[in-house]
Amino acid sequence: MKLHQLSVFLENKPGRLTGPCKVLADARINILTLSLADTQQFGIMRLIVRDWQQARALLEKAGYVVKTTEVVAVEVADRPGGLAAVLGVIERVGMNVEYMYAFTFRREDKAVLVFRFEDPDAAIKALQAGGVNVIGSVELYDKVEK
Amino acid sequence: MIGFSSVDTDGGFHPVSAPDFLPLPQLRSLQLQRLKAIVRRAYESVSLFRHRLVERRLNPGDIETLEDIRKLPFTVKTDLRDTYPFGLFASPMSEVVRLHASSGTTGKPIVVAYTQEDIDVWANVMMRSFAACGLHRGDIIQNAYGYGLFTGGLGAHYGAEALGATVIPISGGNTDRQIMIMKDFGVTAICCTPSYFVHLIERAGELGVDMKKLPLRAGVFGAEPWTEGMRKHIEANSNLKAYDIYGLSEIIGPGVGIECQYQAGLHIFEDHFLMEIVHPDTGEPCPDGTPGELVLTTLSKRAMPMIRYRTRDITCINPEPCKCGRTIRRISRITARSDDMFIIRGVNVYPSQIETALLTVEDTLPHYQIILTREKGLDQVEVQVEVTAQAFSDEIRALEELRNQLSKAIERTLGIRVQVSLVEPHTIQRSEGKAKRVIDKRVM
After folding, report:
1. Smallest Cβ distance to B392: which of A39, A46, A67?
2. Final residue of a domain: which of A25, A46, A69?
3. To pair with B157 at 20 to 30 A between CA atoms, which of B223, B339, B360, B376?
């Protein structure tokens, strides 16, 4: 059920985002979603792509430092209160969210939340027990690229 | 030496190393005999030296013991510049078979000369250097020091050939080809600057070549100061033992000193080079074990004798006998070269201090550069460190913590605050020779 997210180290300078995106574009790898975390001096670009092994190899070959992190994706209804319901479950079991980001689909009225937990396996169990729809990579890619 | 075959392995010594093991009385007596001769030669053939002796009412006959060398004036780098190009030569040009010159980053280079005897001595000390690293006939030595006016390339070349090893005179640069040859030719030893080897390791990884699977077993690294942390990094990422070699063009080139298999200080080839340690400011002798400036006298050089040359390298003499049994004494690894020193807000800083601090916190960060600027009249130091896959974390907090630890470690060492910046891999320019660690953008 876990997703493989790629994290790329970038300096916080104009134009730095273009490099890794171009590497993936040239290989015709579609970025499902991405998020940026940054400080004044540097940043981390976090990416979800279908072919993460190939993307990782290409980025590393181009000289980027890349880390693979396991994250958890959950599906919620794209309406007010959708996120709050999931966070409620997380709060009740006392899990700590390291970071999260969200994206929506074009055709469905659903949104996907991507969470990074310290212990993804425990998180998946807790979320499922709380009635949250955790989705795996195959399901996610099918939805997005349908 | 008895019973040593020319191809020895662990435990044995190469026959060419015999002079490293001379009984001390014999070594000191040889040094004195050579010192007297070289002082006389310099007095008779080098006018600058003769004038300085005459001024001090000295003559070569005043050298009766090794300690008497202290009566003699020092020679400094500017003496070579002031007499550019041939002013300190003691041989006529008809006897000079080779010239080398320093890179001369500021103004004119300094020029050094060799007679055929000098070339032979140089090959001898380089050969003994390789032998001390356990190399011998049958080894394949990739010589990635630059060939040309720089002494590194040809110095290592002649020594390796004299040893009977197979030499690959690849010179510096063309990193991908270096790696291909290293792999295809089954290279067992490499000579280059330590920073260039770090780059070779990095590039090999990118090309999918596992350095640990190559038959490389010795690296003879020099021409720039490096630290124990860097040695650890190199040895952890390859199978070779990293040996520190010391030398300078003014004296002969590489081969003035070398580490033995115990890697605990550099043995100086005392039969050819007389060493002293002096206080850098006063010029007074420092007792053994006390750090000071290394002063060298060439005992056998003919074309260009150097008497009491101030190397500007800071080290100390270790008089303790080495476990290897060599009688020639050791100096501690040179991590500070006064030429590399910079002054920041009144504090003397050596790049190696920053290197040590960085590698203590995280030994996977060998690529760094120090940038000096001046803002509103105040010196600023920025240390740029390339993030490696091992040190990279997916979390901002962890990266900030790493940055924080690095700057704290540097602050503890230097006593001044510096800004540490984490930069992307490959943003710091790789050098094929001596690494450029400091970029001074201050306008004086």
Report:
1. A67
2. A69
3. B339
